[in-house]
Amino acid sequence: MSKTYKGIIISVNTPKRKDVQSEVEELRSLAESVDIEIIGVHIQNRSSVDPRSYAGTGFLSETRESYGEDEEIDYTIVNDEITASQNRSIEAIMDTKVIDRTQVILDIFSMRAMSKAGQLQVELAQLQYLVPRLKGQGINLSRLGAGIGTRGPGETKLETDRRHINQRIKEIRKQLQVVESHRERYREKRNRNQVVKVSLIGYTNAGKSSLFNAMAKSDTYEQNALFATLDPKTRQITLPSGFECILSDTVGFIQNLPTTLVESFKSTLEEAADSDFLIHVIDNSSDNLQTHYDTVRNLMKQLDMEPIPSIVFFNKTDIDDTVHYTPGEPHAYVNTGMPPMELLQILEDFMKTHMEKYDAELPLSQPQKIYDLKRYTIVEEQTLDDDAQTYRMTGYEPPGAWSQRISERNEE
Q1: Which of 103, 172, 210, 405 has a CA between 20 and 30 Å from the CA of residue 341?
Q2: Considering only CA atoms, which of 261, 148, 251 is closest in space to residue 204?
């Protein structure tokens, strides 16, 4: 059984900050995910962050004195990414180990990454975080030892110099390029076959994996935990009409996602950016629903995902169905207790609004063509004309004239 540490959170609330309370509560949840019990939260209102000590030295001293000499505190957690000099200043006053928001998130990612690619991406982010902190005295790597913020490279030879760490970064990038080339070939193959891809995106712990399992009849790992899914999962699904497409589960978003993680996980996030349709999943029972919605929308903009047709699934309505937030885009109120076909029908109805209607008359002598239309398009109506020996089919097809492509293929 892992040891539970005690920690406090310190945050500076500047005028630029939207909602410091939701941020520190989220940081509390993040800290608890790595076995740190938060015994206090301290917020200082300032016009700007102190470049030397993050918060004011007087504020830090008062905070430490408020706990007395007998109160054991293992960690001071800072609600922002801080520099090595700020870390040292806080550590000198608080007399505790000091970690920032980025380190906590990196620690969680290191625990959740299961695939080789995910583990490489986490290590890359951790090393990129460390490099600027090796200058001069920086963080004394020889005394980090075990504990929060030291998983992954923290358990290897952290005494190595910047040159060796940079060499390791190059090695990881090369390995990730191989992974990305495999993904690129897969994407090219899918695009050639014109397979429609739908991706679940959303705030971490919104219930994406649970919905993925319900819709894809899968058994993907799911847990009521932050960043339970780091490695994208993909399954083929069949909509009520018989139309086949693929569904992907993706890493959750979060407020102030560290830039090193955005960069390191770019290829993973691009899996969602390469989709034809998006399902934006929101925890309908969350107290910070608006913040979660805005965070995901901002990251979608950052990743150029806004043009992709998206529908919002307000999940966990079985927990709380009293909140009905209504964004200016298609949305539905769902939960994983609903029949899977009901969830898939909502998705299918949405997809049809972004597809092209077709009307085809097919000879019965070409059953493969009829089969392909049923499989690769959403068939609305089909009638058999015995006299003419034809099949009349109407429905919806993805942009790109699939029915025409199928027709041409069968005429070859």
Answers
A1: 405
A2: 251
